[in-house]
Write a structure and sequence with these properties.
With 292 residues, this protein is of the alpha+beta class. The chain has six helices and twelve strands. It has a single domain, classed as Aromatic compound dioxygenase (Protocatechuate 3,4-Dioxygenase, subunit A), CATH 2.60.130.10. The chain has a four-stranded mixed sheet, with no helix packed on it. The chain has a four-stranded antiparallel sheet with strand order 7-6-9-10, with no helix packed on it. A two-stranded antiparallel ribbon has the order 1-4.
Length: 292
């Protein structure tokens, strides 16, 4: 089901819901890394031009369960560099909701199986353990789930259902309002890393493809922001993969997305690196550094 929202109302609503936070973090400036068990090399903010391993004819089809038990290696194995640049916060938006402590975000929703790797480090680029990283994003149909459940009593963390504009974010689609998919959080290990298994994000009118995230450390919410995916990769997925191509190409490029412009961020700041694996799944990754 296509989302009913039009471009102008969405932008107005985002502004009405609080605009941009003044919080700031730091992002490491270099993330040379290896994935797929060491067989596929990629660098930070990889593009189709520099990554020759992408083959849309072999893209996998499945839910996050497709990735269960698979080890694609550590994309941060070569480190995160020694120089960091400011990462400014971006709006939370109207689609934040209750969430779940889990690695597999998909709840069985089918698409292009995608693993998200995020690394949280401090101003010296040392790992930050025990930080909560929450993510949420839209389905291949361009809708968010409602996830109308109680907060997680085990950790005292679980989002907020009161943040959710149900009609706007789900399009009042029955599958979306009765689902929990594409929402979750994990706690960083001693290496500062979290891993989520899900599917490739969908898109909706007036926004480029994006993944929302919140990082909380020592009980303090340090950053609410968003991650982007390379435009050429988006086009490849949306025009070739069976779970996405019925909607076709998105209507907003990364450079034209107002959230990045209004946040004072650049596309390079927020774009994840990527690599296709031998089984047809994707890995997307990004390192984020917390201010002291």
């Amino acid at each position: 089901m296509h989302r009913p929202d039009a471009p102008r109302p969405r932008r107005d609503l985002l502004k009405a819901m609080g605009g941009l936070s003044a919080l700031a973090l730091w992002r490491c400036g270099s993330t040379a890394s290896t994935v797929d068990g060491g067989s596929t090399a990629a660098t930070d903010a990889g593009t189709l031009a520099s990554d020759g391993g992408l083959d849309p004819t072999s893209f996998a089809v499945g839910s996050g369960a497709f990735l269960a038990g698979k080890d694609f290696g550590n994309p941060f194995a070569s480190g995160v560099g020694s120089t960091c640049t400011a990462w400014k916060a971006a709006t939370q938006g109207p689609c934040h909701s209750n969430t779940f402590d889990r690695k597999d975000l998909s709840d069985g929703l089918v698409g292009l199986p995608t693993r998200f790797e995020l690394l949280v480090v401090d101003h010296a680029c040392a790992p930050v353990p025990n930080a909560i990283v929450e993510v949420w994003y839209a389905s291949p149909a361009g809708t968010y789930s409602e996830a109308a459940t109680a907060l997680d009593a085990g950790t005292g963390y679980g989002g907020s259902l009161s943040d959710l504009n149900v009609g706007f974010c789900t399009g009042n689609d029955s599958a979306a309002t009765s689902s929990n998919w594409l929402r979750g959080y994990q706690t960083t290990g001693s290496d500062g890393r979290v891993t989520f298994d899900g599917i490739y994000p969908g898109w909706y009118a007036s926004r480029t493809t994006h993944v929302h995230f919140i990082i909380t450390a020592s009980g303090t919410r340090y950053l609410t922001s968003q991650l982007f995916i390379d435009d050429a990769l988006n086009t490849l997925v949306y025009t070739t993969h069976g779970s996405y191509k019925s909607r076709g190409q998105k209507d907003t490029t990364n450079a034209a997305d107002k959230v990045v412009v209004e946040s004072g961020l650049t596309v390079a700041d927020v774009t994840m690196s990527f690599a296709q694996q031998s089984d047809g799944a994707l890995v997307l990754w990004k390192a984020i550094t917390l201010a002291a």
